[in-house]
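In this section we walk through a basic example: taking a raw amino acid sequence and producing a predicted 3D structure, encoded as discrete structure tokens. The instruction is simple. Fold the sequence below.
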Amino acid sequence: MGQTLSKSRFVQGLGCPKKLVYGAEKSYLNRSDEDTFLASLAQGGFQVGEFAKAHFPGGSHVNALDQYEALAQTNELLQRKSAIIYEAAIQFENCLVRVDVLEKKADRLIIHEVKAKSYDPTDDYFFVGKQGRLTSGMRDYLYDVAFQKHVVSSAFPDANVTANLMLVNKTAVSSADGLHQRYRIVKENGRSSAVLVGELPDGVLKDRILVSVPVDQECDLIYKLTEHGDRFRGSFDALVHHLAEVCAGKEDPKILLKRDCAACEFKGSSPSGWHECIKSAGITDPVPGELIFDLWNYRKKDLLIDQGQMRLVQLNEEDIGEFEEIKQGTELDTKQRQWLQIKKVKEADTSPWVNKLGWQQEMRNWELPLHFIDFETTRVALPFFAGQGPYQSVAFQFSHHILEADGSVAHANQFLLASAGQHPNIEFVRELQKALGEDRGTIFMYSSHENTTLRDIYREIEADPTRIPDAENLQAFIRTIVQPSKDSADKWVPNRPLVDLLDLVKKHLYLPATNGSNSLKAVLPAILNQSEYLKSRYSEPVYGKGRDIPSLNIGPRVWVEFDEQGMVRNPYDALPDLSEDLTEEEREQLEGIESIKDGAAALMAYGRLMFEDMPLQSREAIEQGLKEYCELDTLAMVFLYQGVRDLVGVV
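The resulting token sequence is shown next.
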């Protein structure tokens, strides 16, 4: 293999050493590279990395991609008595790290590892909990910097090496407008980076939006541990040596299956790294939904895996624990839902379980017309405007379908604001208020995300109402539909509270085709396959501009199409290719978001609109893709509602 152990490979191998083997094998698909890029772009990670350099002015950038050239550049800079080096390359044996910012002050070497991670300086237990253990949210970051300190100390044994994590200070407030806009995303030689446009606003560094926190004590704690996660027992030095040998191709780590294998980045169509690991348990070509990894919300997976109970058909009621008999009219609790999933697999039963009495009781409380809403939001590290803190909620898009008393459906309203010069939140609420109107109709969301977003905007208005002429009116509207948080100083009771369809699905519906998932992306094709009404209604082009069910974005569309096995295809797979009718240059601008079919792609698309300069045609294609994706989210909720009525027998 001949790879060095980098800091990213170290963290990956800490979770599972076998991933280092699969990562070196180019035939295996690795989703982590794309996922990491998406997260960094969506949250402003590229901008944070560049903004960090402004805190260490006058530094030299080691920009060589070649390992030996980068090492030579770094060593030359380290000959100076003092130096600030960005992306310093340090190697010890088969370990090679690129330090985000390395300061040299005489015999001191100071590491600053930059992360777009929110930090609370008022939390005494942010890094290490009350029990003396690393907190789960910071564990990987601390191991990352501990590894870097280990390599730098080993490479320069006479130096005094100290380590810091540079994080986003959640208590900070920006004194400048448009800080995030000062950095634009550019791509050169296939690599994306952030570039400062113009100069930083005066005084913005004094806002302490980024803070470099000493973590030497936490590093010492890690060095003393003799267990490092579920997959390695031994000293820290032994851990580093083992992972370095794996990277060099000199050791082949043994496979140790755990519950976190469900989210493996090497999980994909066979052959894949994940399938190779599953074979070690005697399982070849597993059917989706048949393994213990798929069991919903089950906390004892590791125990059953260690006992060799990998398939759901092997489980019994005793594995779940005590629970009451599943009956019509009563809500499913967690254990009942888990057993229902197992029972369906054991009996090869693909029919839905529907709590008809429960749904009927819920429906009696709903008032027409019915409103279905979905929000697209993001939280970026660097604030949009003066007076804002990091990672404040930014609501940039919504879609709204309405179902009238006569049963007619329409895509009634939408909102999208993706201009880098405008903060969308206030206009978002104004347009939402117009969309939902003055009627008393029930409003549906899928998960509590919409409720949380509106609470965040409520607090934003509350912090400075003088800048918003209609602040009182907007807050009054939010109070009519949103439940306040438990710790809110301002208490109220909404007279038209948002109804969470996800919560109702968990209580009253189980569709075996979802394989335990409650995601709307999984529920939609499952309900379409189970409802004869939906299959009949939407196998014709009744939806779209100028059709029975009008759309604001989509032309005549048949949503129910069947595959070779006679199953309804997932409508999300039918969302269009954004690059159609674009030039080659414009297509290049869309690389990575050729289609928008899930929330991660939507966040990436919004990030591209906010942080990149691109041709008008490419921008319009992305905006169209965002609109169609968000529209399908609310249409999917309409399908769910109509499908449940069909299964309950009230259509």
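Looking at the output, two observations stand out. The chain has a mean pLDDT of 92. The longest helix spans residues 616-648. In the next section we compare this with other chains.
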